[in-house]
Amino acid sequence: MRNFYCLLLILLIFACSDDKSNNAQNQDSNDEPVAENVVVVWDDDSDLISTEDEISNGLYKIEFASEIPDVTINDIVIGDQGKGFLRKVVNVSTSENVLTLQTIQANLDDVFNDASIQFDSNISIDSRNDVLDGTNINVNYTAEGVQMNDDGLSYEFSDIILYQDGIATFSISEG
Predict the structure, then answer these.
(1) If exposure means fewest CB atoms within 10 Å of the residue's CB, which of 3, 17, 53, 62 is most exposed?
(2) In sequence order, which ranges of the chain are alpha helices (DSSP H)?
(3) Distance of alpha carbon 67 from alpha carbon 94, whole angstroms
C-alpha cells in the first residue's frame, strides 16, 4: 500500500510540474503546487543501499549511477526505492557517488504548497467480483450495519448515529 501512495505521489508531482505552458506565469504568481525544496530520487538512476536498521534510524544512503542531485538541509526527498519514502533532510553528505541523508519523517504538507487530494473507493459487491472465491474468512466481530453473507460483507448504514453530544448529533440517515 505504501508503494501505491508513493507512486501516486510521484505521479502527482510530475503531472503538476510538467506543465511548461504556463511556467513563466506560475513562477511570477508563485502558485506552483509542489514546494521548491522537493527532490525526487528515481530507482532507475539510483539504489538505496541502507540497511533496515539504518532506515529505521532515518539514515538513507543512496548510490547514484550518474550525477548526484543537489540536496540540502530541510529539503524533502521522495523516493520509490524499497517500500518508498518521504523524508525531510536534517543532515547531508556525499562521498564519490553515494548520497548520505540523515532524515526525519516528512508529510504531504511538506511537499505541496496548496493541494487537495481525494481518494474514492467502491465497496459494492460489483467491485469485489471473484475476490472471495476459494477464500475462507473468519469473522470474530462485525460493526453495527455490517453483515456476513455468501457474497462476503454487506453494508447497511441506515439510521446509524456516528456522534451524539448535547444538541449535536451526526448520523447516517440512509446508506
Answers:
(1) 53
(2) 2-17, 23-29, 52-56, 108-111
(3) 11
Q: Strand 76-79 relative to strand 160-165: parallel, antiparallel, unpaired?
A: unpaired
118 compared with 67, residue with greater pLDDT: 67
For 112-149, the pLDDT digits (tens) are 887 766 666 666 666 655 555 555 556 665 666 666 66
For the chain, the structural domain boundaries read: 2-19+35-111, 125-172
CATH number of the structural domain 2-19+35-111 = 2.40.10
Whose grid coordinates read 533496515? 52
Mean pLDDT to the nearest integer, 43-64: 92
Among 38-42, 54-58, 94-98, 126-130, which stretch is predicted with the lowest mean pLDDT? 126-130
Alpha-carbon distance values, 11 to 1, 18, 40, 148 (Å): 15, 10, 11, 37
Where does residue 88 fall: left (phi above 0), alpha (psi -120 to 50 degrees), or beta otherwise? beta
Q: How many residues does the chain have?
A: 175
